[in-house]
Design a protein that fits this description.
single chain, 372 residues, CbiD-like, six-stranded mixed beta sheet, five-stranded mixed beta sheet, 12 helices, elongated
Amino acid sequence: MSKVAREKKPEGQLRRGWTTGACATAGTKAALTALLEGSFPDPVSITLPKGETPAFALTHEKIDDVFAEAGIVKDAGDDPDVTHGATIIAKISRGKAGNGIRFHAGSGVGSVTKTGLPIAVGEAAINPVPRQMMTQEVEALCSQHKIPADFNITISVPGGEKLAENTWNPRLGIVGGISILGTTGIVHPFSCSAWIHSIHRGIDVSRAAGETHVLAATGSTSETAACAFYNFPDHAMLDMGDFVGGLLKYLRNHPIDRITLAGGFGKFSKLAQGALDLHSGRSQVNFDWMADEAIKCGLNQSLRSSIQNANTALEVLEIMDERKNKFSQHIANKAQATALEVLRDATVEVEVMVFARDGTLLARTGWLSANV
């Protein structure tokens, strides 16, 4: 499950790219074609789930009497994906009669070790749609050649184990490398869907493991700081990032007993205002709102304009001076109220912890549930 890098969006028209699943499918088709016909199609075209037929250039070819390999360099377009530029290699060999198509994890592709994922424990971390795409291409070629589709498909990614350190795979119990992903075959630049999808899978894994308390943090500082209060196992820590809405909406229908939401004062000021996407490009701190709330916390009316003209939420805290702790608690309570609104009547207790940039705890709510 790849993390989406937090980078500035490039100017102009954004170029889409291809998922690891699409690259693996193209490599599989090229390798099987070579094994059956003696030569590699280059470029090789495949059919994606929505009917698109992209063509892929090969960067690696190998063949002998019993197997063939084809490799494709993943192009993620303008999406800052950690697997951009990785080589996806498909190796195909004949399997035992009647075994059908079997998938295997080669070097740099992970294996599943925990329940809660769409792939069974012990299987290669190749998601269902990529499996379907590869199966479709193999079955079509086998039908043309009038042979049974009994083949082993092994997907490898040189350097994939290192790449996986920058993904959620270690927490999700996927060991040994990256996952082969994709539901459409297409990477849409700067899409939030991949990140939110990984959050959902993290919740699934925690539920399957029987966890009753998970942590969702906006970043590494708040995650580390929250872990000083609780001994969370790796798979119970959800890298929520800016997507608190995506997390809470999924949790509403897939509840876990308790969730600690941890984040910085600036991010959670936006959550307190009702924003569910905390990215700076998609929501902003409303300083007029902050001024109104600060007055409720005892700020002198004469300082209202100072808050209204503040550059950052942290500057607001400086203006609050000795009322900083009271205001931080007020923001934490408001953020908790927003979260409970989204959860509706879900049986989930919520705690909010607000941290300064250095990891100092500024405020902490009690536990509340929307259904009491």
